[in-house]
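Q: Given only this backbone (425 positions), what sequence would you predict?
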């Protein structure tokens, strides 16, 4: 995407063309071509298999390699407000997304996707592009370009790791819940269609049916009454109370079990290990540096992590072809998500960062303030596409949403970057 302009000293300047831009654009176009009937290489099954590799191998490797190399224990302590800031982006975005769902009333399987795209920004990949580009420009408002680039990459890597933690817990659960609801609705509809009424059946005054396969499912009582004078038969379905209740401890431990399940997702494990190796000096020295004895391990992990973005964009490009053909996403939903991400959230972000700065919660570095504000104005996280593919729900709608939000991002990020630097100057 062409995040190409910013204003320094009241003049507009072009960002240099970054390799990341070319990789992203080319991978998306290539993915769309490979998924067409003409080529038919990136089929639905192929995209699912590739997506599993991204989920279990490439993304954890990217998280670990970035964190272990760039974030130290001192950084984690001094940048303590960043995880709170990212949490606030998810909080406000989730609330606004919930309002959009309640007002527009989309199909149930789209609710999690809409809330996730409103709340989850691309907190790593784009910052890795934007921040160094600003630092390398002549007349950058953030001081020496070498120092700015080094510190900016640390900010971006820390943001990516924290964002990945939130995304692979909160957003992951949203998409997973939507998938479960969608499959339950599909099963209920299929079961309803498969039932054909039989008017000639003989029944006693009360017949009990067992719903589901397990013995612990609730029964349904069907009361059949007949009127001799008219010959009419009335059927009344009365749900029977479940015979057993879940124990108090099971209800109490179930949320904790779900949280642990989300923490065991491979990307989250990669982020946690990256934090541990980055914050522990002797572990860091094993992997990082020219004299590190296990330097080849870090190089190999980084090589795997570098494949994350191209693979994700290949999948998104392939899904986009199918999405343009079969997506039933309403234009009003696209407009609502765009307004949340590029109008409401950035304005909230300015207020949050300014208030935190006035209260003395932030370091004096203006680049840190800029990164915090930018976290509120980014397009949706690309990992959401990985999740929809993983759970086989709303892949086409996700790709269409990504198409429009990333097109608008080329204008919105330029405008908001200008506003942020004007505020910080």
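A: Predicted residues:
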């Amino acid at each position: 995407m062409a995040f190409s302009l910013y204003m320094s000293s009241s003049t507009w300047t072009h960002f240099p063309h970054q390799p990341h831009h070319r990789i992203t654009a080319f991978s998306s176009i290539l993915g769309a071509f490979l998924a067409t009937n003409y080529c038919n290489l990136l089929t639905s099954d192929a995209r699912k298999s590739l997506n599993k590799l991204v989920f279990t191998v490439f993304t954890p490797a990217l998280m670990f390699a970035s964190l272990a190399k760039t974030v130290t224990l001192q950084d984690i302590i001094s940048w303590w407000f960043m995880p709170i800031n990212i949490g606030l982006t998810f909080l406000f975005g989730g609330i606004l997304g919930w309002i959009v769902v309640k007002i527009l009333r989309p199909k149930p399987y789209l609710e999690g996707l809409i809330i996730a795209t409103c709340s989850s920004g691309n907190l790593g990949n784009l910052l890795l592009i934007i921040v160094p580009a600003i630092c390398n420009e002549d007349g950058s408002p953030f001081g020496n370009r070498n120092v700015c680039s080094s510190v900016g990459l640390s900010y971006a890597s820390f943001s990516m790791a924290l964002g990945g933690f939130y995304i692979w817990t909160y957003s992951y659960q949203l998409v997973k819940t939507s998938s479960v609801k969608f499959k339950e609705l599909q099963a209920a509809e299929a079961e309803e269609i498969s039932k054909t009424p039989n008017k000639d059946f003989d029944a006693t005054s009360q017949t009990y049916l067992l719903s589901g396969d397990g013995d612990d499912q609730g029964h349904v009582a069907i009361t059949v009454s007949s009127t001799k004078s008219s010959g009419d038969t009335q059927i009344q379905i009365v749900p029977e109370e479940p015979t057993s209740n879940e124990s108090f401890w099971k209800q109490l431990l179930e949320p904790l079990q779900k949280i642990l399940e989300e923490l065991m997702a491979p990307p989250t494990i990669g982020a946690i290990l990256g934090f541990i190796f980055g914050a522990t000096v002797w572990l860091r020295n094993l992997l990082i540096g020219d004299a590190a004895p296990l330097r080849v391990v870090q190089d190999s992990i980084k090589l795997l992590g570098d494949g994350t973005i191209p693979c994700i964009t290949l999948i998104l490009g392939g899904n986009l072809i199918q999405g343009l053909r079969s997506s039933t996403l309403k234009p009003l939903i696209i407009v609502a998500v765009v307004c949340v991400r590029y109008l409401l959230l950035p304005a909230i972000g300015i207020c949050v960062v300014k208030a935190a700065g006035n209260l003395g919660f932030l370091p004096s570095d203006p680049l840190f303030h800029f990164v915090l504000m930018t976290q509120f104005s980014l397009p949706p996280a690309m990992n959401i596409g990985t999740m929809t593919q993983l759970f086989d729900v709303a892949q086409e709608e996700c790709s269409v949403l990504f198409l429009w939000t990333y097109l608008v991002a080329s204008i919105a990020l330029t405008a908001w970057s200008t506003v942020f630097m004007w505020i910080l100057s």
